[in-house]
Structure prediction request, 262 residues.
Amino acid sequence: MRIRIVILVMISLMFAQSEQPYPPLELVSIPTAGTLPKGSYTYETILTKNGGVTPKLAVGLTDNLTFGFAYGIHNLIGDQKPDYNPQPGFIVKYRAYSETTKWPAIVLGLNTQGKGVWQETVKDTIQIDRYEQKALGFYITASKNWNMMGNLGVHLGFSKNTWENLDGDDNVNFFIGFDKELNRSFSLLLECDAALNDNDHEFEDLTFGRGKGYVNAALRWAVVPNVLVEINFNDIRKNSTIESKEVEYTNREIKIMYSESF
Prediction:
Protein backbone atom coordinates (compact mmCIF):
# COMPACT_ATOMS: atom_id res chain seq x y z
CA MET A 1 0.00 0.00 0.00
CA ARG A 2 2.80 2.42 0.91
CA ILE A 3 4.59 1.65 -2.37
CA ARG A 4 1.44 2.55 -4.32
CA ILE A 5 1.13 5.87 -2.49
CA VAL A 6 4.78 6.72 -3.22
CA ILE A 7 4.29 5.86 -6.92
CA LEU A 8 1.17 8.04 -7.13
CA VAL A 9 2.99 10.98 -5.51
CA MET A 10 5.94 10.61 -7.89
CA ILE A 11 3.62 10.51 -10.90
CA SER A 12 1.85 13.65 -9.65
CA LEU A 13 5.17 15.42 -9.23
CA MET A 14 6.22 14.47 -12.76
CA PHE A 15 3.06 15.49 -14.58
CA ALA A 16 1.49 18.26 -12.49
CA GLN A 17 1.35 21.50 -14.51
CA SER A 18 -0.55 24.09 -12.45
CA GLU A 19 1.37 27.04 -11.03
CA GLN A 20 1.02 28.78 -7.69
CA PRO A 21 -0.80 32.10 -8.31
CA TYR A 22 1.02 34.40 -5.86
CA PRO A 23 4.05 34.30 -3.58
CA PRO A 24 3.02 32.66 -0.27
CA LEU A 25 1.59 35.03 2.33
CA GLU A 26 2.54 32.48 4.98
CA LEU A 27 4.39 29.21 5.22
CA VAL A 28 2.65 26.78 7.59
CA SER A 29 1.93 29.55 10.09
CA ILE A 30 4.73 32.16 10.04
CA PRO A 31 4.38 35.17 7.70
CA THR A 32 6.52 35.82 4.66
CA ALA A 33 7.14 39.21 3.03
CA GLY A 34 4.65 38.32 0.32
CA THR A 35 1.57 40.52 -0.24
CA LEU A 36 -1.40 40.16 -2.56
CA PRO A 37 -1.60 42.21 -5.78
CA LYS A 38 -4.10 45.05 -5.75
CA GLY A 39 -7.63 43.85 -6.49
CA SER A 40 -7.04 40.20 -5.57
CA TYR A 41 -8.10 38.07 -2.63
CA THR A 42 -7.35 34.71 -1.06
CA TYR A 43 -9.87 32.66 0.91
CA GLU A 44 -8.32 30.00 3.11
CA THR A 45 -9.78 27.26 5.29
CA ILE A 46 -7.72 25.24 7.76
CA LEU A 47 -9.16 21.93 8.98
CA THR A 48 -7.69 21.32 12.42
CA LYS A 49 -7.83 18.83 15.28
CA ASN A 50 -11.05 18.09 17.19
CA GLY A 51 -13.25 19.04 14.26
CA GLY A 52 -11.93 22.59 14.13
CA VAL A 53 -12.17 24.99 11.20
CA THR A 54 -10.39 28.32 10.80
CA PRO A 55 -11.53 30.31 7.74
CA LYS A 56 -9.41 33.28 6.67
CA LEU A 57 -9.94 35.99 4.05
CA ALA A 58 -7.15 38.29 2.82
CA VAL A 59 -7.54 41.13 0.28
CA GLY A 60 -4.92 43.10 -1.62
CA LEU A 61 -5.90 46.75 -1.08
CA THR A 62 -2.75 47.88 -2.90
CA ASP A 63 0.25 45.96 -4.22
CA ASN A 64 1.97 46.63 -0.90
CA LEU A 65 -0.93 46.47 1.57
CA THR A 66 -2.89 43.33 2.43
CA PHE A 67 -5.72 43.20 4.96
CA GLY A 68 -7.60 40.18 6.25
CA PHE A 69 -9.38 38.47 9.10
CA ALA A 70 -9.80 34.94 10.44
CA TYR A 71 -12.17 33.22 12.83
CA GLY A 72 -11.71 29.94 14.68
CA ILE A 73 -14.48 27.42 15.33
CA HIS A 74 -13.78 24.22 17.26
CA ASN A 75 -15.81 20.98 17.42
CA LEU A 76 -17.68 22.11 14.30
CA ILE A 77 -17.34 18.59 12.92
CA GLY A 78 -18.37 15.90 15.39
CA ASP A 79 -20.98 15.33 18.08
CA GLN A 80 -19.93 17.97 20.61
CA LYS A 81 -21.15 21.51 21.05
CA PRO A 82 -19.27 23.92 18.75
CA ASP A 83 -16.84 26.26 20.51
CA TYR A 84 -16.27 29.68 18.97
CA ASN A 85 -13.36 32.03 19.50
CA PRO A 86 -14.47 35.14 21.41
CA GLN A 87 -13.42 37.49 18.59
CA PRO A 88 -12.05 37.31 15.04
CA GLY A 89 -8.37 37.64 14.34
CA PHE A 90 -7.08 40.47 12.16
CA ILE A 91 -4.22 40.41 9.67
CA VAL A 92 -2.44 43.47 8.24
CA LYS A 93 0.68 43.32 6.04
CA TYR A 94 2.50 46.33 4.65
CA ARG A 95 5.51 45.83 2.40
CA ALA A 96 7.95 48.58 3.31
CA TYR A 97 10.71 47.45 0.96
CA SER A 98 10.53 45.34 -2.21
CA GLU A 99 13.00 42.57 -2.90
CA THR A 100 16.01 43.27 -5.11
CA THR A 101 18.83 41.08 -6.37
CA LYS A 102 20.86 42.00 -3.28
CA TRP A 103 18.34 42.77 -0.56
CA PRO A 104 15.27 40.99 0.83
CA ALA A 105 11.74 42.28 0.86
CA ILE A 106 10.63 43.61 4.24
CA VAL A 107 7.08 43.56 5.59
CA LEU A 108 5.59 45.11 8.72
CA GLY A 109 2.49 43.35 9.98
CA LEU A 110 -0.03 42.48 12.64
CA ASN A 111 -1.67 39.10 13.23
CA THR A 112 -3.99 38.65 16.22
CA GLN A 113 -5.12 35.10 15.36
CA GLY A 114 -3.48 32.46 17.55
CA LYS A 115 -3.63 28.70 17.10
CA GLY A 116 -5.80 26.27 19.01
CA VAL A 117 -8.59 26.97 21.49
CA TRP A 118 -8.94 30.33 23.25
CA GLN A 119 -8.53 29.70 26.98
CA GLU A 120 -9.96 31.74 29.84
CA THR A 121 -8.58 30.23 33.02
CA VAL A 122 -7.89 31.43 36.55
CA LYS A 123 -4.66 29.89 37.81
CA ASP A 124 -3.23 30.81 41.21
CA THR A 125 -5.44 33.95 41.23
CA ILE A 126 -4.04 34.94 37.80
CA GLN A 127 -6.50 35.33 34.92
CA ILE A 128 -5.02 33.64 31.84
CA ASP A 129 -6.64 34.67 28.54
CA ARG A 130 -4.82 33.35 25.49
CA TYR A 131 -4.70 30.82 22.67
CA GLU A 132 -2.97 27.47 23.07
CA GLN A 133 -0.27 28.93 20.84
CA LYS A 134 -0.06 32.71 21.09
CA ALA A 135 -0.76 34.95 18.13
CA LEU A 136 2.27 36.55 16.50
CA GLY A 137 1.10 40.06 17.28
CA PHE A 138 3.16 42.85 15.71
CA TYR A 139 5.97 41.57 13.52
CA ILE A 140 8.62 42.37 10.95
CA THR A 141 9.57 39.82 8.30
CA ALA A 142 12.32 39.71 5.68
CA SER A 143 12.14 37.35 2.67
CA LYS A 144 14.72 36.56 -0.02
CA ASN A 145 14.21 34.24 -2.99
CA TRP A 146 16.62 32.49 -5.33
CA ASN A 147 16.05 30.43 -8.45
CA MET A 148 17.77 27.12 -7.70
CA MET A 149 16.04 24.52 -9.89
CA GLY A 150 12.80 26.10 -8.74
CA ASN A 151 12.29 28.90 -6.25
CA LEU A 152 13.97 28.74 -2.86
CA GLY A 153 12.67 31.25 -0.34
CA VAL A 154 14.15 32.09 3.05
CA HIS A 155 12.05 34.01 5.57
CA LEU A 156 12.88 35.27 9.04
CA GLY A 157 11.45 37.77 11.44
CA PHE A 158 10.66 38.98 14.93
CA SER A 159 7.30 39.42 16.63
CA LYS A 160 5.84 40.95 19.79
CA ASN A 161 2.48 40.00 21.30
CA THR A 162 1.39 42.75 23.68
CA TRP A 163 -1.89 41.30 24.98
CA GLU A 164 -1.49 37.52 25.59
CA ASN A 165 1.10 38.05 28.31
CA LEU A 166 -0.78 37.59 31.58
CA ASP A 167 1.31 34.45 32.09
CA GLY A 168 4.25 36.78 32.71
CA ASP A 169 6.12 35.87 29.50
CA ASP A 170 6.14 38.84 27.12
CA ASN A 171 9.49 38.39 25.38
CA VAL A 172 10.14 39.29 21.75
CA ASN A 173 9.77 36.16 19.60
CA PHE A 174 11.82 34.94 16.63
CA PHE A 175 10.85 32.77 13.65
CA ILE A 176 12.50 31.43 10.50
CA GLY A 177 11.31 29.32 7.57
CA PHE A 178 12.02 28.02 4.07
CA ASP A 179 9.96 27.12 1.02
CA LYS A 180 11.31 25.13 -1.92
CA GLU A 181 9.52 24.49 -5.21
CA LEU A 182 9.83 20.89 -6.35
CA ASN A 183 8.19 21.75 -9.67
CA ARG A 184 5.52 24.22 -10.82
CA SER A 185 2.87 22.58 -8.63
CA PHE A 186 4.51 21.22 -5.49
CA SER A 187 6.46 23.00 -2.76
CA LEU A 188 7.99 21.88 0.51
CA LEU A 189 7.68 24.19 3.53
CA LEU A 190 9.66 24.11 6.78
CA GLU A 191 9.52 26.60 9.64
CA CYS A 192 10.52 27.12 13.24
CA ASP A 193 8.71 29.39 15.69
CA ALA A 194 11.06 29.79 18.64
CA ALA A 195 8.13 30.66 20.97
CA LEU A 196 10.40 32.78 23.14
CA ASN A 197 7.27 34.42 24.57
CA ASP A 198 5.91 31.04 25.67
CA ASN A 199 8.80 29.32 27.44
CA ASP A 200 8.86 30.85 30.89
CA HIS A 201 5.73 30.02 32.84
CA GLU A 202 4.70 27.58 35.55
CA PHE A 203 1.31 26.50 34.22
CA GLU A 204 2.23 22.96 33.18
CA ASP A 205 -1.32 21.64 33.63
CA LEU A 206 -2.67 23.95 30.92
CA THR A 207 -2.45 23.45 27.17
CA PHE A 208 0.63 25.57 26.53
CA GLY A 209 4.04 24.98 25.04
CA ARG A 210 6.97 23.51 26.97
CA GLY A 211 9.72 25.89 25.90
CA LYS A 212 11.13 23.95 22.94
CA GLY A 213 9.60 26.01 20.15
CA TYR A 214 7.40 24.80 17.31
CA VAL A 215 8.79 23.09 14.21
CA ASN A 216 6.27 22.70 11.39
CA ALA A 217 6.46 21.28 7.86
CA ALA A 218 4.07 21.02 4.92
CA LEU A 219 3.62 19.87 1.35
CA ARG A 220 1.77 22.44 -0.79
CA TRP A 221 0.07 21.43 -4.07
CA ALA A 222 -1.27 23.82 -6.72
CA VAL A 223 -4.18 21.69 -7.88
CA VAL A 224 -5.31 24.23 -10.48
CA PRO A 225 -3.97 27.78 -11.02
CA ASN A 226 -6.10 29.36 -8.27
CA VAL A 227 -6.51 26.47 -5.81
CA LEU A 228 -3.83 25.27 -3.39
CA VAL A 229 -4.08 22.31 -1.03
CA GLU A 230 -1.62 21.88 1.81
CA ILE A 231 -0.93 19.06 4.26
CA ASN A 232 0.56 20.46 7.45
CA PHE A 233 2.56 18.63 10.10
CA ASN A 234 2.58 20.88 13.17
CA ASP A 235 4.66 20.66 16.31
CA ILE A 236 6.97 17.95 15.02
CA ARG A 237 9.07 18.22 18.21
CA LYS A 238 5.93 17.68 20.32
CA ASN A 239 6.34 20.86 22.29
CA SER A 240 2.73 21.03 23.45
CA THR A 241 1.16 19.62 26.60
CA ILE A 242 -2.48 18.87 27.31
CA GLU A 243 -3.38 18.85 31.01
CA SER A 244 0.30 18.30 31.96
CA LYS A 245 0.66 15.34 29.55
CA GLU A 246 2.95 15.48 26.54
CA VAL A 247 1.30 15.04 23.16
CA GLU A 248 2.09 11.70 21.52
CA TYR A 249 1.69 12.53 17.84
CA THR A 250 2.40 15.35 15.43
CA ASN A 251 -0.64 17.54 14.82
CA ARG A 252 -1.90 17.16 11.23
CA GLU A 253 -3.92 19.79 9.40
CA ILE A 254 -5.28 20.36 5.92
CA LYS A 255 -5.27 23.85 4.43
CA ILE A 256 -7.26 24.79 1.31
CA MET A 257 -6.63 28.16 -0.40
CA TYR A 258 -8.60 29.77 -3.21
CA SER A 259 -7.32 32.94 -4.95
CA GLU A 260 -9.08 35.25 -7.40
CA SER A 261 -9.09 38.80 -8.71
CA PHE A 262 -11.99 41.27 -8.73
Notes: The helical segments are 2-15. Residues 173 and 196 are 5 Å apart (CA to CA). The longest strand covers residues 137-147. The two ends are 44 Å apart (CA to CA).
